[in-house]
Amino acid sequence: MRNSTPALLVRDVSKTFTPGRRRIRALDDVSFEVARGSIFGLIGANGSGKSTLIRILSSLVLADRGEVRVFGYDIDRDSLEARQLINRVSADPSFFRQITALENLLFFGRVYGLDGRTARNRSAAILSRLGLEADQQRAMVKELSRGQQQKIAVARAFLTSPALMLLDEPTTGLDPRSKREVQRFIREVQREHDATILLTTHDMAEAEALCDRVAFLVGGRIVAEGTPNELRGAVANGRPLDAIDMEDVFMALTGTSVDDDEDTFDD
Amino acid sequence: MTELTDLRFPAPARRFPVGRQLNLGWAFVERQTNLWKRHWAWEIVWLVYGVVNTLAITFIAKQLVADGVVKGRQASDLILFLLIGTLVWAYLSAVLDDISLVVTWERWEGTIEHTLMAPVPRVPHLVGTAVFGVLHGIVRTVLIMAIALPFFAIDVSHASWATAVIVIAVGSLSLIGLGILTGVLPLLYPERGEQLSFMVQAVVLLISGVYYSVDTLPSWLRAASHLSPATYLLRALRHVLMRGATLGDEAGDIAIMAAFAAALIPSSIVVFCAAERWAKKTGRLKRQG
Fold first, then answer.
1. Cα separations (Å) of B10 from A36, A115, A174, A264, B6?
2. Which of A192, B87, B101, B187 is 20 to 30 A off residue B268, Cα-Cα?
3. Could you list the residue range(s) of the whole structural domain that residue B118 is in?
4. What residues form DSSP beta bridges with A10?
5. A186 shares its domain with A241
6. What is the predicted pLDDT for the residue at B75?
7. pLDDT of B213 higher than 90
8. Is the pLDDT of residue A102 over 70?
9. Domain assignment of residue A140, given as a range
10. In whole angstroms, what separates CA A85 from the centre of its chain?
C-alpha cells in the first residue's frame, strides 16, 4: 500500500450531454486530487457541473474521457470495489416515502453489506445523534419535514462508514438550525471515522467552515484550487486575508457570481 | 491493486460470497414487502379487480352453459378452462408488473441513483426483485382463487396437484427473464418505457392462449405463441388440472419452460447491465418523463 495514493484522483475528466439537438459540455478536462482524511470543497453556481461530477464519482454517469480513481480503484473498471468505499448525500433526500425512516435505512444498510440487526441498531443510533426522536424514526418519510428527511439522508450515507463521502449540497433548503446540526455531524464523523469528504456547495460560509481545500468550478472547468487562505492570498493585493470575503474571491478568480445560474443539463 | 491496510476500512471485495449475495437479494424482498404493506389500499384495488375480472370472464362460460351452447363434460371443461386462464393471468401479470417496475418505481420515488450506486451486483438485485414478484403473485392469486372458486361448481378430481406445483414453479422461472427484459425498457426510454412494458404484457396476453386455445389464432400469431413461455405454462397447467396429466406427460412443456428460464434469466441480466451502462453514458438514469 502506498500512502501517497490519494483518496480520490480525478484526471482530465470531460463529459458532454446531447439532450435533443443541444450539446452541453458539462465537464471540461477536470483534474484534482483529494488527500485522505481531508474535506475538499467544490464550489460553483447551479449548472456549473458539480452534480455531473458527483454522479461520475458515484459511477452513475460515465465520463466521455478521463480517469477517476477511488483509493486507487478505477470507478468504471473496478466499479464494485470502488462503490464499496463511497456513499453520497444529495440535495434531494430521495427515499421511499411510504415506508419509515428506519425501514429505508434497513434497506440501504443491507445493500451495503450490513446484516439486519447491525443496520437497525446503527440506524437508530445515528438518527438519534442527528436529533430524530424514536417516534420520528418510525414515521413514514412522507410525514417528516424536509429538514428531517435530509437528516435521514445524511444518516443513510454515514450508516455504512464510507471511506469517501460525496456530499452534494447536503444542506440546501435546510433551516439554519438543521444546517448547523448537519454540519456539526459531518465534522464529528469525519474526525471519528477518518473519512474523506468531497463537498459541493454554493454556500461559501459552509465551504469555509468545513473544507481544508476548495476548488472553483465554472462552466465545467476548475478555474482555481487551494486552501481558503491560499485563494484569498491570490486576490489580496496587500490586504489582510481575514478582511477578504470568499464570495469576493470567487468573483475575482472566476469573473462570475456563485449565485448566477449557468446553462445546465442536470445540476 | 491497492490494499487499504493502513486505513480503518476493510478492503473492498472483488466478488461477494454466496451468503452476502443472498443477504443483498433479501434486501430487495424485504424492502418490497415493506412497501407492499404500506400500499395495502392499492393491493385491495388490484385484488378486487382480479376477482371481478375472474368472475366476469368465467361467467361467460356459465352463460354458454345456461344457453345450452355447451353441454355435459364440455360445459365443466369450459368453465375450468377460463378459470385457469384468468387465474394464471392474474398471477403472470402480478409477477411481470413487479419485476418490470424495478426501474420505474425507483424513478417515481427518486431512489434509483442511491440503489444503483450501492455495491450490489445486478444478479442479486434483479433476482431479489423477481423473488418478491413471485411471492406477491402467489399470495394475490390464492386470494382471488379463494374468493372466486365458490361461484362455480368445478370438478378438479382428476387434477394432479403436485405436478401443478412443479409446472407453476418452472413456469414462474421462465417468466422472470421476460419480466427483467421489460424492466429494461424504462432504462432505455425514460418517458415511454413503462407504457412499452405494458404493451409487451398485452402481446403476451394475446398470443399465449389465456382465454382461448392458441389453435384459434391465425397461423402467424400461432407461430409467435411459441415464443411466449406463458403458452407452455397455460397448456401444461390445463392438462394437469383438467385431465390429470402426469409429470411425464408434461415433461416436454416443462423442459421448454426450463430452457426459457436458462436462456432468458442470464441473457436478460446481461441486457439490463448493457442498458444501465448506456443510460449512464447518456445521462438518462435520473431523467423522468
1. 15, 16, 33, 38, 10
2. B87
3. 22-28+38-282
4. A32, A68
5. yes
6. 87
7. yes
8. yes
9. 93-161
10. 14
Between B6, B24, B27, which is nearest A3 by CB?
Answer: B6
> Domain end: A128, A161, A194, which one?
A161
Q: How many domains does chain B have?
A: 1
Residue B105: CB partners within 8 Å, gap ≥ 6?
none
pTM here? Answer: 0.89
If asked whether residues A129 and A190 sit together in one domain, one would say: no
- Dump pLDDT digits (tens) for B218-253: 999 999 999 999 999 999 999 999 999 999 999 999
Q: What is the CA B66 to chain-centroid distance, rounded?
A: 35
Q: Are residues A77 and A209 in the same domain?
A: yes
My answer on whether A58 and A105 are in the same domain is: no
Residue B73, chain A, CB below 8 Å: the answer is no
Within chain B, what is the greatest distance between any pair of CA atoms? 84
Cβ–Cβ contact B218 with A under 8 A? no
Please name which of B38, B286, B106, B132 lies closest in space to residue A103, comparing C-alpha atoms. B38
Q: What φ, ψ does residue A232 adopt, rounded to 5°?
A: -60, -45
Same domain, A28 and A65: yes
For B19, the 3-state DSSP assignment is helix
In a domain, B5, yes or no: no
Residues of chain B neighbouring A112 (CB-CB closer than 8 A): 118-119
Give first-to-last CA distance, chain B, whole Å.
41
Per DSSP, the three-state class of A30 is strand
Question: B109: which 3 cell numbers?
Answer: 420515488
Residue B96 located in a structural domain: yes
Amino acid at B129: T
Distance from CA of B123 to the nearest CA of A (A): 13
B103 in any annotated domain: yes
User: Which residues are CB-contacts of B285 (< 8 A; sequence separation ≥ 6)?
Assistant: A60, A61, B112, B113, B116, B187, B276, B279
pLDDT in tens, A200-249: 988 888 888 889 999 999 999 999 999 999 999 999 888 888 888 888 89
A108 lies in the same domain as A229: no
Q: Which residue of B has its CA nearest to A57?
A: B117
Q: How many other CB atoms sit within 10 Å of the CB of residue B29?
A: 18
Q: What is the ipTM for the molecules in this complex?
A: 0.89
Q: Please report the residues numbered 122 through 141 in chain B whose beta carbons come closer than 8 angstroms to any beta carbon of chain A.
A: none
B224-283 residues touching A, CB cutoff 8 A: 277, 280-283
Q: What is the dihedral of CA A122, A123, A127, A133, to 10 degrees?
A: -110
- Cβ(A59)–Cβ(A80) below 8 Å: no
Domain identity same for A123 and A59: no
**Beta-carbon separation of A110 and B285 below 8 A:** no
Q: How many domains does chain A have?
A: 2
Nearest to B161 by CA among B239, B104, B224, B241: B241
Residue B232 lies in a domain: yes
Contact A189, A134 (CB under 8 A): no
The domain that holds A76 is classified in CATH as 3.40.50.300
The minimal CB distance from B12 to the residues A85, A116, A194 is found for: A85
CA B10 to chain centre: 39
